[in-house]
Structures
1.
Amino acid sequence: MAKKPVRKRAAGGSGRSDMRKKLMEAAKTAQKKAYCPYSRYPVGAAVLTDSGRIYTGCNVENASFGLAICAERVAIFKAVSHGDKRIKALCVAAKSAKPCGACRQVIIEFAHKDAEMIYLDWQPLEKKEKITITTAGKLLPHAFDPSEAGL
Ligand SMILES: [Zn+2]
């Protein structure tokens, strides 16, 4: 009985599962750093790049509301500023976690179309979590694609 799961691990099933766990933990940790005194809606994000490195971000608000930035874009811009421009996977952790439209356009700019998008609907006080997994290619139908535009 115990041998079957071990074989699955050898086939690579566990590698993806380990990656998901790592990303989800990193996103949850980043969520704790959120600066959200106005909305009181903390969000954390973690991005895995082609280099194998993980970059994290949290939402950062401002008294001038339009200056706020989402956790996903903080994580992606950190990755890009370190020279990591290709996203293999992204996790966003929050209550009812999903990237907003602006973040979806930024994700499409840097992610592989089959990059895994993990939404971790996470409510720490209630100790509940729901995980939804999709791909970057499904985030924004008819998105502006710079490669199609010849940019
Ligand atoms: Zn956003």
2.
Amino acid sequence: MMMMMMMMMVIIIRSLTRLRFLRFGNPALEELRRGDLAGVRQLDQLEVYGNNLKRYDPGSLGDLWPLGVVTLHLRGPFQDNLTLVSSILHDVCYPETFLVVVDVLLTETNSVAPFSETNQRRVRSIMFQNATLTDEAIVHFLEVCHVHRPAVQMQDLNLTSFSQKENNHAATRNVN
Ligand SMILES: *[C@@H]1O[C@H](CO)[C@@H](O)[C@H](O)[C@H]1NC(C)=O
Ligand SMILES: *[C@@H]1O[C@H](CO)[C@@H](O)[C@H](O)[C@H]1NC(C)=O
Ligand SMILES: *[C@@H]1O[C@H](CO)[C@@H](O)[C@H](O)[C@H]1NC(C)=O
């Protein structure tokens, strides 16, 4: 009985020391280099504010594990550098990771291309929060994720139809 209680305590303490949450970044964060998070290994939750991130050394977030929840604010990179986005997704995604992608504007078909990385990493749950997606981008997203189709949740989604976008352009042209 005593032995069993001790074993339980050990298990509980181990799981507490594993319970780690790291949130970092801000509008001024422009680069992430290998070694920036030196010493951090076990993490259950990670949140990165990298809306203006311009450089990312592959692997910089690659040593963190098990990453049950990863929240990414990568508005700028999703618009300017999809290679950088792919590189980050490659480093932070595991099959058990619940990936939350916040504040993005995914209007071009190509803008969802980095999700081929989450597909390769067999991520099972993805949530878009406060995102704008065109129907075209959603169709392409589903194509990109066709192998290990993840559960997808949408919160505060702005859904814009491609044809509507075209009409808006047409309307603008008419005004001019
Ligand atoms: C995109 O990001 C990668 C990784 O930081 C970098 O090597 C590359 O030069 C960037 N590309 C552009 C066009 O900024
Ligand atoms: C939602 O995202 C837009 C940019 O796409 C941002 O300007 C806005 O502040 C975000 N809203 C919230 C509530 O975070
Ligand atoms: C929704 O998306 C459209 C097209 O990108 C944009 O014009 C509009 O401002 C967005 N609305 C919100 C509330 O983000």
